[in-house]
Amino acid sequence: MSAPLEAIAVSRRYASRAIVDDVTLSLVPGEITALLGGSGAGKSTLLRLLAGLEPVDAGEVRLAGRVLSAPGRTVPPEQRRIGLIFQDFALFPHLTAARNVGFGLKHLPRKQAAATTDRWLSLLGLSGRAGAYPHELSGGEQQRVAIARALAPEPAAILMDEPFSGLDPALSGSVREAALSAVRAAGIPALMVTHDPAEALESADRIAILSQGRLLQSGSAEEVYRRPASLAAAGALGAVNVFRRASLPPSWQAAFSATGDLAGFRPEGVHLDAASPARFSVTSRRLTGPLVRLTLEGHGLKVNALAAPGAAPHAGAETGVSLDPALTFTFASGET
Amino acid sequence: MELKAPLAFAPALRQLPVLLAGFVIALPVAIVVAAGIAEGGGAAWTHIRDTLLLRYLTGTLAVLTLTGALCLLMAVPAAWLVTMFRFPGRGLFEWLLVLPLAAPGYVLAYAWSDLAGVGGPLQSALREATGWSARDYWFPDISSLPGLCFVLACTLYPYVYLTARAAFISQSVCTMEAARSLGAGPGRTFWSVALPAARPAIAAGLALALMEAAADYGAAEFLGVPTLTFGIVRAWKSFGEPAAGARLALVLLALILTFVIVERQVRGRAGTQQSSIRWRRIARAELPRPAAIGAASLCAGLFTLAFALPVGRLVWRSLEAGTHSTRIWEALGNSILLASAGAALAFVLALIIALSIRKKGPIATFARIAASSGYAIPGAVLALGALAVITALPAGLSGFTAVAALAWVYAVRFTAAGTEPMVAALARAPASIGQAAQSLGATPFRRTFCVDLPVAMSGAAAAALVLFVEALKELPATLMLRPFNWDTLAVRAYAYASDERLASAALPSLLITMAGLLPVILLSRQISRARPGAAP
Q1: In the listed set A236, A263, A290, which residue is the last one of a domain according to the structure?
Q2: Is 0.90 surpassed by the pTM of this model?
Q3: Residues of B with Cβ-Cβ distance to A133 under 8 angstroms
Q4: Residue in B closest to A157 by C-alpha
Q5: Subunit contact B275:A142, Cβ cutoff 8 A
Q6: Minimum CA–CA partner of B198 in chain A
Q7: Which residues fall within 8 angstroms of residue A109, CB to CB, at 6 or more apart?
Q8: How confident is the prediction for chain B on average, in pLDDT?
Q9: A57 in a domain, yes or no?
Q10: Which end of chain A is less packed: N or C, by CB atoms within 10 Å?
């Protein structure tokens, strides 16, 4: 029933500077794709191109094979049936929660629209708040109204622009879970723009990494995390140790399967292993929450590692260190 | 080391300036209300009540209704177009459309009746083009109720335009984009999202415009439309019965109070505060060619009717007439003297009230309410109150007391206009700077003079200019209280126009308009800069 939403080689320029540069991305129904990147990477602009809020300068946006955007031709947002969720929720301040949700149901008979509104409100646990105005709702409630409003008209796809970053961190976890399960249940293509790699990894099925308007990599979360296509892509998803491969201790070489003269490995892939011949001394030890961050020095290298607090040695101790092959990657030094 | 207690004012003493300021502002209104209720109103009142009251009342109501409707029609579509779309001249119109605020209603009335009269350039051109004679056609008569409303709407619509534009600019663009993603076209987005969200701002602008319309005396008198304000001045001027005027003032005040209440009601419960924390520059949509031409002509037409045509006519007439009359320069000097005195007093009062705003308590609240209600009260009513005080004094209405009384009335009327920018300046500064000063050991006295005062002063230059120009434009109170044979520009323009010497009225009218342009331009720039999300 649902079809993919695709960007095919789309570009968008402001005053000859490419904000989105030749990006091809396919959003699969039933899956949440996280669009990850720093500020100014072009994430929001790509979302706006997909939504039809801005025209494309090159390339096409297609839904179910139908061209929605092409240079000089943009189907207006109100004819696309693509739901939008904004960072600031963008609720209509003069309408109650129920009337916000019902806003996109004008095509339905009044009774049916009311029933649909009620269903969505109760689905998101808002039944008691139907008559409240946005300013009377808590942040989490506003967020859920925004999601119900976007999903109620049964859109063909849904786009979310930093949907959880406006929320209290303590709140965003539970709200996110409720919200994303509603989005998943809709079985439509979904895109979530975020600058937070943890959020992308935790919530999304697929991840697309954008940097300076270009798509660095896209794939399943697992794949992108474990097999980054480039150093930049590796760095976008979390901390990474990078050294010339030749400078690594000989016992580590076996952990790298591919060729390439730069070696990268994640801090959690550094194992404290008494049996390893590669000896390092611990120069600092800091608690980061559930794990301890260690700085290890030896062999002319300075390595970041994450370890369980129970197992981690104290600063000044010496330890053997080995690498988890699943969390290593190599790059040629030409690419960055 | 010996610890000295900080030098603190006795709390009551510290409140004294605010109490005094509030009292000075509230007194004239209180006197008028008391006089209106207590005094019989005399023989003239019986006459006015039986023959004129109904006409004044219906006149004022009709003027307010029609002027309000015209203001909305002129202001809201223009504000929407200028904010949301790109079309030729948009950037220019955005601030040009504010300029009509510079010319007071009576000046526009003179200019328009000169333009549209039988001998005026419009009708002459029509006759020349068609070969008709003056009896062959119908031409709208400016000296009529619709004519007055048109003239008032021309100068007052910018209040609505400014607040509507600010509301449109400040509303989250995301909200409108959300509406479109939910299937609402541009039309429905405007009617069901943008307009309702802007409604309280539009209502506030309209209330301001209608208060000004209710306070108008010059235009109504010149165009021969009986209104309550017209009646108040006439009760004093023709009947010599301030008490009867006070009775009429009661009716007018009740009417104004109704507006304020209605305006509060319109705000209602629905929130209009945007939850937005992030602003995107408004991406103005390009209009298709015919629509762009339509939008540009609408704005150009509005500007031409409200400003270019009447002010152009004044310039033309002034050049034609020359400056042979030295009475203009005398009047200019008097105007500047009076406006300066009024602005200075208002400035001091505004400063006292603005500085007290952080203090909570009944006295500060009283002073603030007094100031903002003073702004809503027509000059003619305040003049009645001041007259009552002066005539009770042994010296009576002579030179110095008259000037002082005028400065007083100006201050009562316009202090609120000065308080606003100062309060805004204080509000922009974080509350923590006061606490920082205290933590550094500053006494309340030092805190007021070394921290709060300099901060408030950043909004003060604008406030002073606004006060000066408002005082310069004021007509009915000046007419009632000025020393004998002592003219200001406004009085001179009024006197010439009353004698049907429109050519001579042009120069003083033009000078008033020129002075009025300064704060209007300042205001327009400030508003467009202060809004997040506004494109520069």
Answers
A1: A236
A2: no
A3: 269-271
A4: B181
A5: yes
A6: A94
A7: none
A8: 80
A9: yes
A10: N
A336 domain-assigned: no
Do A149 and A89 lie in one domain? The reply is yes
Give residue B142's identity as a one-letter amino acid code: I
Residue of A nearest to B183 (CA): A78
DSSP letters for B150-191: HHHHHHHHHHHHHHHHHHHHHS-HHHHHHHHHTT--HHHHII
Q: What is the pLDDT of residue A54?
A: 87
In B, which residues are within 8 Å of A149 by CB distance? 178, 182
ipTM of the complex: 0.73
* Region label for A40, one of left (φ > 0), alpha (ψ between -120 and 50) or beta (otherwise): left
For an interface test with B, which of A43, A45, A78 has the most B Cβ atoms less than 10 Å from its Cβ?
Answer: A78
Residue pLDDT, tens place only, B285-314:
778 888 899 999 999 999 999 999 999 998
Residue A248: which domain range? 241-331
Torsion of CA A143, A146, A151, A156, to 10 degrees: -110
Contact A92 B179 (CB under 8 A): yes
Q: Domain B16-41+325-498 is in which class?
A: mainly alpha
Indicate the residue of B182, B188, B269 with minimum beta-carbon distance to A153: B182
The beta-carbon neighbor of A77 closest among B177, B274, B283 is B177
Name the residue facing A93 among B177, B181, B270 (closest C-beta).
B270
Candidates B172, B181, B189, B287, partner chain A, best to mutate (most A CBs within 10 A)? B181
Pick the residue from chain A with its C-alpha nearest to B267. A94
Give me the number of domains chain A comprises. Answer: 2
Backbone angles phi, psi at B515, to 5 degrees: -60, -40
CB contact under 8 A, A87 and B277: yes
Which of B184, B193, B271 is facing A133, going by the closest CB pair? B271
**Yes or no, beta carbons of B181 and A89 under 8 Å apart:** no
Please tell me whether residues A12 and A107 are part of one structural domain. yes
| CATH class of this structure's domain B46-240+286-321+509-536 | mainly alpha
Chain-chain contact of B277 with A166 (C-beta, under 8 angstroms) = yes
Of A224-233, A243-252, A253-262, B218-227, give the lowest mean pLDDT range: A253-262
Cα B308 from Cα B96, distance rounded (Å): 10
**CA distances from residue B79 to B64, B130, B300 in whole angstroms, order as listed:** 21, 37, 13
- Contact in structure between A60 and A69 (CB atoms under 8 Å): yes
Centre a 10 Å sphere on the Cβ of residue A7 and count the other Cβ atoms it contains. 24
Q: How far is B195 from chain A (nearest CA, A)?
A: 10
DSSP B279: -
CATH value at residue A144: 3.40.50.300
Between B204 and A70, residue with greater pLDDT: A70
The residue out of A236, A263, A279 marking a domain boundary is A236
Fold match between domain B16-41+325-498 and domain B46-240+286-321+509-536: yes
Domain locations in chain B as residue ranges: 16-41+325-498, 46-240+286-321+509-536
